[in-house]
Design brief:
heterodimer, A: alpha+beta, two-stranded antiparallel ribbon, B: Spore Coat Polysaccharide Biosynthesis Protein SpsA, Chain A, 9 strands, 38% helix, 22% strand, globular
């Protein structure tokens, strides 16, 4: 169970991820399953990449999107739990995390972040995964 | 009941770029297959080393074509264009086929008439990288794993339905091709035997660790996701 103050981290040994045009595309290299999260979800992922915690992410989402803080907190907690259940993220044991760098200006329209999961090409994407880096 | 008999000409396409050091071993592993004949087409992708000399040593056993450097996918496509086989198979110039590879896969095709695409397991081995080998000894990297292009055998007609490898992908063209083949509804089968040994050495290791490798995977996924969006999800 991930606490809202736990620093979040991507499981980089098994997960390759990239945010392209605001959409986060994730591959679990050990299962070959892939995922996408658009818009708000993409923003949440980029904040996880910055080693934030759920609380900080929810605060940033509430500041950047037209959504009540309580809704943002509940939605972020739900998404974080789902990402953890899919073995895409973990906590690194530390409490705290980076303070999100807020994006500017007016609030964007909000839609609840959703993780789309695809298993249709799993055995292909699990083939010959990228070699682990020497540093790992 | 006896196993169904198998037959059919197989073309093995080998792209090579500056592969003088290991090319002969790769070719020998094809020439020594328990199944014959196999048409071998090597596409020299603009090598500047002694690759042409290695090829010359094989005389008529190997057909070679030379092109300006265009990457492995383009080279594989060039080889396919010249192939006369009913089946296409691929090998990289530093890797080795198990001696029974062609026979085992042809038998699989013979016993599964609807099969279009047959892959197998491969296993990595290390050359001149003792530290690396020791570090990876007990990891997934050292264990048999499903392999893409080097293990692939495909019916020529099925290949043509899917189309050529995407030459813009320098690392993952085989993954992309398999994704397209799956999307086209082709039937896949995997032989759960190690039929390919992939050599890891300083050159291909540094290349594999470059950003281009995972970038190719994301490029494939973006195409997939765009196709999904076009269908209105």
């Amino acid at each position: 169970m991930i606490d809202s103050k736990d620093t979040l981290a991507i499981r980089r040994r098994e997960v390759a991820a990239k945010v392209i045009d605001g959409e986060a595309i994730l591959i679990n290299l050990s299962t070959g399953q892939y995922y996408s999260m658009g818009d708000v979800g993409g923003r949440v992922w980029s904040l996880i990449e910055q080693s934030c915690n759920s609380e900080g992410i929810a605060t940033a989402i509430a500041a950047e999107y037209d959504v009540p803080a309580a809704t943002a907190a509940a939605d972020v907690a739900e998404l974080v739990a789902e990402l953890a259940a899919e073995n895409l993220i973990e906590t690194n044991g530390a409490v705290g995390g980076a303070t999100p760098v807020a994006r500017s200006s007016s609030k964007a329209a909000y839609s609840k972040p959703a993780l789309s999961k695809f298993s249709d090409m799993a055995e292909i994407f699990a083939m010959d995964p990228p070699l682990p880096g020497l540093a790992q | 009941m006896s196993e169904p008999s198998y037959s059919g000409l197989v073309t093995c396409v080998i792209p090579v770029f500056n592969g003088e050091r290991y090319l002969a071993e790769a070719l020998d592993s094809v020439l020594a297959q328990t199944h014959s004949p196999i048409e071998i087409i090597v596409v020299d992708d603009g090598s500047t080393d002694g690759t042409p000399d290695v090829l010359a040593g094989y005389g008529g056993d190997v057909r070679s074509v030379r092109q300006a450097n265009a990457g492995p996918a383009a080279a594989r496509n060039r080889g396919v264009a010249d192939a006369r086989g009913e089946y296409l198979a691929f090998l990289d110039s530093d890797d080795l086929w198990a001696l029974s590879k062609t026979e085992v896969q042809l038998r699989r095709f013979a016993s599964h008439p609807g099969l279009s695409v047959c892959t197998s397991l491969m296993q990595n081995f290390w050359v001149d990288l003792a530290d690396e080998e020791a570090r990876m000894k007990d990891t997934e990297v050292a264990r048999p794993q499903a392999g893409p292009s080097q293990t692939l055998m495909v019916r020529r007609a099925a290949f043509d339905r899917v189309g050529p490898f995407d030459p813009t992908l320098r690392h993952r063209d085989a993954h992309d091709w398999l994704v397209r083949a799956r999307a086209a509804g082709l039937q896949f089968g995997q032989v759960n035997e190690v039929l390919v040994r992939r050599r890891l050495h300083a050159n291909n290791l540094s290349r594999s660790r470059g950003a281009g490798d995972t970038d190719d995977l994301f490029a494939i996924l973006r195409k997939k996701l765009a196709a999904r969006d076009a269908l209105g999800r």
